[in-house]
Design a protein that fits this description.
It is built from eight helices and twelve strands. It has about 325 residues and is of the alpha/beta class. It has two domains: about 210 residues, Metallo-beta-lactamase, Chain A (4-Layer Sandwich), CATH 3.60.15.10; about 80 residues, no CATH class. The strands form two sheets. It has a seven-stranded mixed sheet with strand order 1-2-3-4-5-6-7. The model has no long low-confidence stretch (mean pLDDT about 95). The chain binds zinc ion (2 copies). The site of one zinc ion has 5 residues, from helix 2.
Length: about 325
């Protein structure tokens, strides 16, 4: 048997990064570590600076949209604060899921057994599969589209195909000029890690365009400390398009011969350094262009570049050559 030893000492040489532009930050959090604000009329949003949820106060109780565990018990505190100020009920009766991920709905069980949990049918399947007591299964589902009418408020749920996850869906509030689309555009920031840890990159890249087909003024993006505008979505699209173009140029012009010569029979060493070198070269001009525009461009663009490059190669077949 192979024995594994894990060292958990922090690296002594953590790199420096460009300052985060002020436009990336949202309102100051209160003493309990959250901020709750109005989107429009009786639609509100709540953030802990990293994650976001939304809720609607209606004559038939509160409808909560996502329940991130990092906000946790502050979700009900935020709802109570708003309900008290407006003299309306504060009981959460419905919990709508954007997708099954634990970091966005891992506080679901706090709302008890009585709450009606709603989401896409694939969300239901994935929650049943993963069997996490923090995320009870759904009571009601939809496949492509579903209109909810709760306490005279209209909520449109829609699934536009797999993207960040197979189940990730959008929530349109036509009477509140708002859209909730999570884990696609991060307001003011670049995507994290490998394309926001997305499973279907073609779907991910298409979603901002889908979002812009809806009429809305405010986007609840699920992440970071502020709400997003249509301009934020366009900036994100431009960033992804610039990276796509840069990847194609880098792939077409990079000569991997010296790398493969160096590593000879160690095929994987050659492949690793080839792919890393192309995706890093492609990221460089995009980092320069977006530093000061999108926060953390210098932190994550190389990782985003790697996974977008693999999609351009493997999904689209770019640069693929058939042996003579
Ligand atoms: Zn997610
Ligand atoms: Zn997320």
């Amino acid at each position: 048997m192979i024995e594994l030893r894990v060292s958990t000492e922090a690296s002594p040489t953590l790199p420096d990064y460009a300052p985060v532009p002020n436009t990336a930050f949202g309102p100051t959090l209160n003493e309990q570590g959250y901020y709750v604000g109005r989107v429009e009329r009786n639609l509100y949003w709540v953030t802990d600076g990293v994650y976001q949820a939304a809720f609607l106060t209606t004559s038939d109780g509160v409808v909560l949209f996502d329940a991130p565990p990092t906000i946790g018990h502050n979700l009900q505190r935020a709802i109570d604060e708003i309900a008290r100020a407006n003299g309306v009920g504060s009981t959460v009766r419905y919990l709508v899921h954007t997708h099954h991920h634990a970091d966005h709905v891992g506080a679901s069980s706090l709302f008890g057994k009585e709450v009606v949990r709603i989401g896409q049918e694939e969300t239901r399947r994935l929650l049943l599969r993963d069997d996490d007591p923090a995320r009870p299964p759904l009571d009601e589902t939809f496949s492509d589209r579903r209109r909810l009418e709760i306490g005279d408020e209209r909520i449109e749920l829609a699934w536009h195909g797999p993207n960040h996850t197979p189940d990730n869906s959008v929530i349109h509030f036509p009477e509140h000029n708002a859209l909730m689309m999570v884990d696609i555009v991060n307001a003011g920031w670049v995507p994290v890690s490998v394309v926001n840890l997305s499973e279907d990159i073609r779907g991910y890249v298409a979603m901002p365009g889908v979002a812009l087909t809806y009429p809305w003024k405010t986007l609840v993006s699920g992440h970071l400390g502020r709400l997003a505008t249509r301009d934020d979505v366009v900036t994100h699209q431009q960033y992804m398009a610039d990276l796509d173009a840069s990847i194609r140029t880098a792939w077409a012009t990079f000569d991997p011969t010296p790398i493969f010569v160096t590593y000879g029979p160690n095929i994987w060493a050659g492949v690793k350094h080839y792919l890393d070198a192309v995706s890093r070269a492609a990221a460089q001009p995009v980092i320069e262009k977006y530093t000061g525009v999108l926060a953390a461009a210098d932190v994550y663009t190389a990782d985003v570049s790697f996974w977008l490059m693999e999609s351009i190669r493997l999904d689209l077949g770019y640069g693929s050559q058939v042996h003579a």
